[in-house]
Amino acid sequence: MAVFPAAASVHPPRFLMNIVLKDLTKIFPKSSRNKSPVTAVDNFNIEIPDGKLVGLLGPSGCGKSTALNLISGLEKPTHGRIFFGGTDVTDLPPERRGVGMVFQNYALYPHLSVLQNILFPMQNLKGKERPSKEEMIARAEEAARLVQISELMDRRPGELSGGQQQRVAIARAIVKKPGVLLLDEPLSNLDARLRLQTREEIRRIQNETKITTVFVTHDQEEAMSISDLIILMESGVLNQVGKPQDVYDYPANMFVSKFLGTPPINIFKGTVKDGTVYIGDVPAAHTDSGFEGEAAVGIRPEGFIPDRNGILSCGLSRVEVMGRDTSIVFTHPQAESGSGRAIVSSESLSEVSGTTVCFSLKSSKIHVFDPVTGVKIETRPG
Amino acid sequence: MKNSNFKAWLFLLPAIAFLGVFMLYPLIDVLIYSFEEGYNSASQSYWGIGFYNYSYVLRDPYFIQALKNTIILVIITVPLSTGLALLISLGLNSIKALKNLFQTVYFLPYVTNTIAVGLVFMILFKKTAYTDGMINLLINWFGGQSVDFIEGPYWAKMMVMCIYTIWIVMPFKVLILTGSLASVNKNYYNAAKIDGTSKFRTFTRITVPMISPMLFYLIITGFIGAFKAYSDEVALFGTNLNAAGMNTIVGYIYDMLYGNSGGYPSYAAAAALILFIIVLTITSINLAISKKNIHY
Ligand SMILES: Nc1ncnc2c1ncn2[C@@H]1O[C@H](COP(=O)(O)OP(=O)(O)O)[C@@H](O)[C@H]1O
Ligand SMILES: [Mg+2]
Fold it and tell me: pTM of the full predicted structure?
């Protein structure tokens, strides 16, 4: 990959900053849009460390954009405080917070050229803050170089591809060297291949600039692949914060376990009796939690190992080979939708024959939840 | 390829036939009339071809007056009505709660009969045996002298005519502009806010360019409409517009055809073509400017 010494020397931004959200809440009143008041952001307490790329993840309508708009200052919180690098910015308007923002549809001004779009934020500056014309152009060119659109400066947004527009939007957002960069679903208007490419770009740009970045997405794979940290929320409520792999390996609740991972986790109806977790009459895990009664037993697709002597016996629907992955689609009476999917190694297929398949289970891939509240029930192997 | 072209023409045929009979043929006919000197409608004969009709019309003081009136009307009402409509639309757009109510209120004149609006203006401006009109009452209240707006001095009549025209065209413009303002994606404004763009700059650099196609549409149709003004003047000043000194080009054409001094289709045709050339020129200039300024 190419290296850009010029860019690296001028960035990073003037100062790095962490973002702290304290009891942050946003309630939208009843309106034409909502029949009853909506708590879009419910009592958030998070620290977003400086210089990191954080993925804010959750299903559509869960309040991600609202959370981002609270950070940017486009929305005012119902209560709670926001701190940038220790400074309380809750009452500051957006332009005083030093944030750059990229919108889902890019919001590039269609009547202005790429260069004029990138210059636009600097031209708003007044008095001493306003750079000279030459300096503005130099900075615009530097931002353009960083996102690799230098040769497109005279075009208009309408003459650019989606991916190029995206880069222009990022250049416009970082040209003032903000302490915080906010991206609201920046990839969702791109096709699959471009999305992969552009998310790597965003990762690279963040690495080079070290701007504290919050990246909103509803695509778990996107968040998992480029974030230093993910924040997972559901209908306004913060579910879990952590490194992507940690959140995947130790989901705090059933929602988190279901939301992360493709193919998704398989949920079985189970019971806990005397400290043992059963699927049907098969003991799958043990718990010291004292929990008794019905439980939801989640097993990741990669937690199944085909094994003639395995404990979990399932009906074999079919074997699918897609690229590198070999998956076994099985049926089980306790499985949530009657069937499930296991990702296995191709060698292990020798263990599979006939109409039933037996699995032994990797205990680290088993997660047990209270079926009503979804709260995790701690288990131990053996 | 050939085949599909043929089909396209076939589908267009009814429209072309219709336009040909009702638009193109009369246009050509008017053009011919305008060059026939001394045309006599009774005998359908004429004694020469030339520019006499044009030179007559251009030297006719009634035509000069009508041309002057029309141009004043255009120059005053088009920018004023468009600008006012933009202001009102911006106001409406920023007051969410009142948006729907006000949109109805401002649209009322549009669905109201011209004659009814004329009546309102009578109440406002006309002197009768019983009252000098509401506006004069106001003027008197501030210690001023009554003005006869309908039969008085030229400037007063012109003012009433301009206000009336603006009043009539305003609702349509407000409707179009509130619609196009509302359709500007909110993210442009959010992006501008994040970048600390001042209200004024947001308006001139984002709002106006974004709605510029609609603005140009309104200006072009505004020019054309104002150049064709006639019925509003009749509603205000009666049918003898020449006597009132308030005739317009279209009024002049009408008078030449059917008025008391009418029966001169050749003069009417020449006047119509002069109007046509003026409107064509102005519209071309407008389009050229809009092409240069609308980029998407
Ligand atoms: N301006 C607003 N007015 C009223 N309700 C809103 C507004 N913005 C968002 N909401 C509501 O808040 C909830 C979260 O919305 P949003 O933050 O846009 O979700 P996401 O970005 O995760 O899809 C939704 O129920 C939405 O209807
Ligand atoms: Mg959103």
Answer: 0.82
